[in-house]
User: Fold this.
Amino acid sequence: MRKRDVLSIVEIPIRSNIIMRLDEAGKAAYSDLLDSTGVIEVLDSRGNFNYHLNFLLENSIVVKEGMIYRLTDKGRAIAQFVKEVNQTWNQIEPKLGGGYVSIVGYAEEFEKETGIKMQKKAAEKKLFGIAEIIMDESLVLGIIPQKDCKGKYFDEFEEIKVEDLELCTKEWEWEGKAVRRQIFCHPKLSYGISPFYLGAVMRYVEHFFNRTVQLSVMKQKEPSPILVKAQTLGDIYDGPAFFIAPTLFHVTGGKG
Assistant:
């Protein structure tokens, strides 16, 4: 196995999460591994999970026995390597703190982690003349510096609770055709949030910055972009925040 393949396991959270789950539990079913990586079973997320699981199987890091997955001897050695890397990182991270990463740097990191293509050349654009913003190619998701999430414009946002989100199946029309998709619904909103984009943002923030996320929406304005940023818990945090475009649907769409 090549050195860069071993290093990619540490670098790609889905792979390292699978390995560490199997190292902890000894064995696991597919659904358990899927849950342990935080992947939402909608859109492209499950396909991305399968791609990384197959990589581990093809490289004899994980073996499948019937419906159960286990680590091989190679897998257990790599699990020990991942633990040692994490321990080393925890020791040196405080010494590396304080550096400022530009919004372009965050966009490149986010794209590498999630596969969502970002238009990095748009960094000089301003959100309502206030904050730098980089959009993805579909103009659905934007990255802004969290330090810019202040001032009069951002005072118009109010927090909604992540735990109140519910995965629903909704129908709406798109270019004259009926579209049926799974989206996140919230009792206070008449529009939805893309599970794919929200899931990607939450995994990115929680993994790289060890923080949970806070969701906010514009007060008394529908539909409005969803502001996703880290809960700083009183800490100074110079990481990224995100805007996700709302998902519209007919009110008559049914729950899944």
